[in-house]
Amino acid sequence: MPSAENNMDASTYRVVIDCPDQVGLVAAVSQFFASVNASILEASHHTDVKLARFFMRHEIAANSLKLNHTDFKQAFAQLAQKYDMRWSLNSSRSKPKVALLVSKEEHCLNDVLHRWHTGELNCDIPCIIGNHKSMQKYADWYEIPFHYIDFSNKTEAFAHIEALIRDYKVDLTVLARFMQIIPDDVCQRLSGKIINIHHSFLPSFVGAKPYQQAYDRGVKLIGATCHYVTSVLDEGPIIEQEVMRISHSDSSDDMVRKGKRCEINALANGLRYHIEDRVIVFESKTIVFN
Amino acid sequence: MPSAENNMDASTYRVVIDCPDQVGLVAAVSQFFASVNASILEASHHTDVKLARFFMRHEIAANSLKLNHTDFKQAFAQLAQKYDMRWSLNSSRSKPKVALLVSKEEHCLNDVLHRWHTGELNCDIPCIIGNHKSMQKYADWYEIPFHYIDFSNKTEAFAHIEALIRDYKVDLTVLARFMQIIPDDVCQRLSGKIINIHHSFLPSFVGAKPYQQAYDRGVKLIGATCHYVTSVLDEGPIIEQEVMRISHSDSSDDMVRKGKRCEINALANGLRYHIEDRVIVFESKTIVFN
Amino acid sequence: MPSAENNMDASTYRVVIDCPDQVGLVAAVSQFFASVNASILEASHHTDVKLARFFMRHEIAANSLKLNHTDFKQAFAQLAQKYDMRWSLNSSRSKPKVALLVSKEEHCLNDVLHRWHTGELNCDIPCIIGNHKSMQKYADWYEIPFHYIDFSNKTEAFAHIEALIRDYKVDLTVLARFMQIIPDDVCQRLSGKIINIHHSFLPSFVGAKPYQQAYDRGVKLIGATCHYVTSVLDEGPIIEQEVMRISHSDSSDDMVRKGKRCEINALANGLRYHIEDRVIVFESKTIVFN
Amino acid sequence: MPSAENNMDASTYRVVIDCPDQVGLVAAVSQFFASVNASILEASHHTDVKLARFFMRHEIAANSLKLNHTDFKQAFAQLAQKYDMRWSLNSSRSKPKVALLVSKEEHCLNDVLHRWHTGELNCDIPCIIGNHKSMQKYADWYEIPFHYIDFSNKTEAFAHIEALIRDYKVDLTVLARFMQIIPDDVCQRLSGKIINIHHSFLPSFVGAKPYQQAYDRGVKLIGATCHYVTSVLDEGPIIEQEVMRISHSDSSDDMVRKGKRCEINALANGLRYHIEDRVIVFESKTIVFN
Fold this sequence. Notes:
Chain A is built from eight helices and 13 strands.
């Protein structure tokens, strides 16, 4: 419970990299950090021996640095090039813009908005987009623009959504129980920038009515999965999963209630990990430094 | 996932008893139920062999009965007397009136209101009472009267609260992170009708700042406890507990975030169990038919 | 912590039924119990409203009864017939005979034997059957006959196994990580009397190398499933499941270690539930009164 | 599931340090590693901002180094001195010698021995010490010397135990349900080298009969705690904790059964963390890099 974490004006830089593994890599990175006087608050490493690939995330106290954000980034870019890194360097001050897409189910929407409102999610929410007007009330209460999309024409509907995403300069689109299948081309354009909460413990029960499928199979736990959206339905890289125990005595209502709890928790964690630059997608999987 | 549970107009009666154990007790009760044509949807029994005491809860389809609520109750009263039962017989149609008491923390308030709003909690919420005006906004959105209580004079404040409880005919008072110690006499008058959410895994870390206590002791899980309030602080019968794993890398913010999750879940379950007549308090403990 | 449960000479009868649901059923059963002076220690009910089917398990103190086992059974049979029940009535004194089938993995074998040895599993273990001689040492230490089966001819091998099951009058066959697919006809002959521990959270990762499959998919929890064996591989009714959280930092060894823990716990519970007559199989699923 | 982890002949060095935090520390350490060509398989950092203290663990492929163990250690010692480090540098080839102390309960003993036997615990077990002769059988089966200690004279008994610890050059003493309170002077002499498994979720239910205490308080989860032993009973730094859900329907036997599962898992993890140099004790708490 270190008190410094409570100091809200202490912004940080988050440096996230992955690159081919080699001896001296950590030394080079940490020497660079030392050379700019970086005070490291959190450091996470992972070596995938089989892939010979290295993954790393640092969180650095911004006020410890001798350089500003731009100069820091420029200096790091040289190092990154030398080691063939994929990398990002974000300030905790630049909040990502997160758009929420919803249908009729309101539990995920309510939870995400509440966490955002109380400061747990370090993002902006420029808009809520829905195919049911009933969600307007949440948008109003939290004073966020709400856009109703008519899905009688699917192509137009998704064109409308993509236009909104462009106009609001959205960094991440969250399908917070948005019960529409995203077209391939949209998936590809938003690749790595769109996450979904699926109401099953994937890869079990892909597709529609996962609770019914779970009931029919007689599983003893149900779950939910937060994952990046790809063209193949429910096959994207998994960020977070949650499960809860059920039994024969759980009614349909009980299963839905428990399932909602899983969805809320998996989405809340998955979303936070993404926002805090804790997720690296590599091929079909994620490294999550949580 | 039986479909009948989804049939929202199908009200039920909940018959809850406890009494000295004896052979023939279950037969007598179930024969009575058969004699009035009761279709039993859910039945739970518990025998405490040491105490020679029997605990039982039945949920009965109201539309299966030959009698109305009043006649059913009257008929059951005779049986109850014969076996020296403590008992209750409630219809799922008569929703208990639940008052929420809050201070500044809004996560439990938001969660309870959301579950109530979406029909998960089968109760009415006639009023929200708070010692901080900032909670008014939740009350407004959900269109529930909010009463601000000034605590500069504690005695008057609690007199005011008790008057509100009386006026609103409140059945259950919930301390949804209400950071005031309830006076002995109020505890006694509300005995069995007031529940609290304490932000530790009791009996560890009684009293103030449980997260700091947990941090100082270096425990590897933190938790929350939903319990009935008695005169002895944090000593009342426990209804529900939740825990989450923590580690040295959890900051103060992380612990609070995880702790809130525990509080929300323990309170949501504990409150639902009480509302659905699933809790029997016997001496210092609870039987929970969940 | 009722002391009576500790009284090891207090044997019980376990009456398990399922039948079409109807009003008066519970009354009829409990009146019968009262008429023979049965002291009910544990009672569990379940109504499947959709199927209109009723499931029930009672545990009765044997020494409270006016009748002996045979007479009790005979008397109950009349009631059972009237209500078209599938039923069993077993004494806790007649321990089922459980045969263990193993390959090379020893963790499940060690755990089951230890629990049996310390009295947690109320069964006899007349034999251990294996296709690797290395498991002999466990059999020796626990003084249980070990039968090595040569699998160079599969048909003969299974004929040998079935002969052993017959000769030892085995009630339940446990595949404690027995890495051979059971032929259809054997599955059918042992229907309801053979359980398996599969090292994944079914229905995910059916078949071989489930940990590799889980690794490839990038799931965030792995699990194990204890289920009845049917002709369709890994499709039988599920008794118990366990899961554990994993992350990118878990090596192959870590996943195996965590997986073993899941397997041990799921098998231990599933086996105990079966032995204590806590499982009712209905169609493709189980009701587990635990 | 990187294949290299499966390569059993690939030994590693584990470098564990803690020291006052300062900018450049990580750079200095990682530059040193690079200078000796160290291939880092696993790296874990923790900064305690409040204490301004830094904690770090590295696991290095031994065969990547230009130096042997002795030279590596000597070279590192200079760096360590410069930064005022507490440190250790162990090879995975030098297995610590772990002595097991037991009374009558055999579940922890059985589990630790099984994990050791199957290679999960990378240690030697030179002796088992017990105050009940019945544990001899485990020692015999695993071919480990067993020493029975007569506790009619406590002082002599502990002198005997300490002599055995000395003679066997024991690195870690494990109280695997050893139901004797360790004298203060022994605690001090073995400080940091003796761990206990306590059968409650500490700090709840210190001392004797924790399950009875848990039963009396009516908690909804029970647990177990693996901790270093200090002079104050059950107050030492916690390494690992486990919990399981219980309810009113759990008998004494059920609680003991579930509690054993917690004990086994907490001890197995805690012991492994210690053996693999994953635990740093600082003041009254632990940092566990797991």
